[in-house]
Amino acid sequence: METTASNHFWKALSLIVALTALPLSASAEESYSPHVDQSYPTNVYWGDTHVHTALSSDAYIFGVRLTPDDAYRFAKGETVRATGGKEVRLYRPLDFLMVSDHAENMGVIARIDAGDKSLLATEAGKRIAKAIDYPISLLEALDADTDELLNAYNAATLIAIKADQGPVQGLDQADHGIVMPIRHSVWAEVIANAERHNDPGSFTTFTGYEWTGNGHRNVIFADGPELTSQVVAWSALDSMNPEDLWAYLKGYEESTGGQAFAIPHNGNLSGNRMFALTTLEGKPIDQIFARTRSYYEPLYEVTQIKGDGESHPLLSPNDEFANYEVFKWGITKSQPDAKKHGSTDTKVETQVNLQTKPTNAYARSALKIGLGAESELGANPFKFGLIGSTDSHTALSTADQNNFWGKMPGNEPGRNRVITGWNYNAGGYAAVWAQENTREAIFTAMRRKEVYATTGPRITVRFFGGWDYVAADAVRPDLAGVGYARGVPMGGDLTQAPKGKAPGFLVRAVKDPDGANLDRVQVIKGWLDEDGELHEKIYNVALSDGRTENGNGNVPAVGSTVDIPNASYTNSIGDPELAVVWNDPDFDRDELAFYYLRVLEIPTPRWTAYDAKFYGLQDLPDEVPMVTQERAYSSPIWYTPM
Q: Rounded CA gap, 188 and 17, in Å?
């Protein structure tokens, strides 16, 4: 009896200990493994939503003969032969890609070149057929002894582009009167191309295209052919008005049950139109306009080959890093004599940079303007996340400085492209925090703006905002779990600040595993004060090499290890990782505000330096930049008083 009683006692005690050891929330259904029920993304996927192939009128005129199949194969890491005849491959494949050929006359120029009788019967068709008959070999021009042939080739393509322009001001393509069956046929080809290469879990493709109207947009569909085949691409030939594009997207969603939105591409060359507070007709925007734009344009392409679009020295004169890859037109030393090489017209118009403030053309300025619009209209038209993409017109998505294949075939590697095209930027890519590499997961992440941009390097960036982060959270191995549990990720919203509290931001940036160390992490803040004035401020929240700000807020430069003649650098400066919890010292709980990260690498060789080394180029003009400082931009986190 004594033994039996003792056994009962120890069994009871063991049960009590076991029960008290369980978490209070434990249940019979709960898994011991915390990862089973994990609901937040732990993977960042890399891709490009802006690549043109031979289906785009301008790309074909530039000389591109690579197809969407080539573009997808290249993005997956396969070797392809570029337009200029050289083989090319990505060192690191992408995770997703959208081929975004221009909707206007998609596939038409190729049909004209193939001898389509119906198209050649039109005046526009005759003009194009004559204009694209170039007497100059691109392959010879790229590697000729001087840049004369390449200048002539590029001039001939510009003449052909001009021949394809329509009579409507601002319309880039002539109206060839394409009948609807042809539009359906080409669109079916676009869909089939994407479907053929979509491999859920390994490589994701999206059906999409570029609308080339007033402020270009890339349209991305979340859906497969059963839904996307019910429409055709809406083009600028249908309407130049973005409001009509949004109506098309709404109609698609309502009629099919699918999802789609538009991504405005870098507005740095938009002539101050991209973020105007007026409609195309010149009327002030209203709340409906603001809400519609915000919904159908949740992302913005902040950096690409035609320059960087975060900010500009004229807009941010106190920002030492605002002068990054500001695009310049008309850089060749002299106007090439295209007629000398067989062209029939030598008149080529070139654009010049205007020195007026590009207030409505850059992302940071637009984010601030959006706060002002929200205070007046009750809705923010410019509440967008940030991504990068290439806008490549070669079918090749390349954003690495040491593997840059240019904007157009005339900018593909060759001994002459530095002089004729040094203004082009090797960038950028889109980074998406998603739970898996599928259309649904990546599209959903894009819709919630949990995305960021880089100028090419695959820097890993985490950015959370909340009210209860502590300094020790920055060094926790489960930083992301803490970030989601106590706040919101990039692209999210904070509201109604607790009394006496300022928002805290949990930040971690990790270098590209195959790239450069980091220089610093900055928080860019914009806000609207009680007098209706818009402001911005840059905070250095994490600095490498133990540097600190002085009393004036200035920071010593990180230095440079770049060896220009050898196109090399070392990671002997900077840090591989920077992490911090930063609280806003200037917070006012009654003011609208936004915050986003800018992560800077240490200086590295620019693609022009790699060209100079490879081709043995000497005595290049001083204006040709040879060093770059690449970067990442997170999507903002917004604060709204309630």
A: 66
Residue 413, C-beta contacts closer than 8 angstroms, at least 6 positions apart: 84, 86, 142, 404, 405, 406, 611, 614
3-state secondary structure 527-540: EECCCCCEEEEEEE
C-alpha–C-alpha distance, residues 92 and 605, integer Å: 19
pLDDT digits (tens, 9 = 90+) for 441-492: 999 999 999 999 999 999 999 999 999 999 999 999 999 999 999 999 999 9
pLDDT at 496: 87
d(C-alpha 148, C-alpha 94), whole Å: 36
Q: pTM for the full model?
A: 0.91
pLDDT in tens, 309-349: 999 999 999 999 999 999 987 654 444 444 455 444 433 33
Element (H, E) at 599: strand 593-601
Residue 44 is classified by DSSP as E
Using CA atoms, how far apart are residues 408 and 136, in angstroms rounded to an integer? Answer: 16
Helices and strands in the chain, H and E counts: 17, 25
pLDDT in tens, 404-429: 999 999 999 999 999 989 999 999 99
Q: What is the largest CA-CA distance in the chain?
A: 115
Question: Counting Cβ atoms within 10 Å, is residue 49 exposed (0-12), middle (13-18) or buried (19+)?
Answer: buried
- Percent of the chain past pLDDT 70, that is, above it, reads 91
Concatenated DSSP letters for 116-161?
-HHHHTSHHHHHHHHHT--SS-HHHHHTSSSSHHHHHHHHHHHHHH
Contact 84, 149 (CB under 8 A): no
What is the token pair recorded at 598? 């800018």
- φ, ψ dihedrals at 184, nearest 5°: -65, -40
Q: Of 312, 281, 278, 303, whose CA–CA distance to 293 is shortest?
A: 278
Higher pLDDT, 31 or 283: 283
Choose the weakest-confidence range: 131-135, 204-208, 551-555: 551-555
Q: Which helix (H) or strand (E) holds 627?
A: strand 627-628
10 Å CB burial of residue 464 (0-12, 13-18, 19+) is: buried
The span from the CA of 238 to the CA of 531, in Å, is 43
Q: Quick one: which of 124, 123, 151, 153 has its CA closest to 137?
A: 153
The DSSP output letter for 563 is: B
Q: Give the Å distances, CA to CA, from 201 to 30, 42, 400, 435.
A: 27, 14, 25, 10
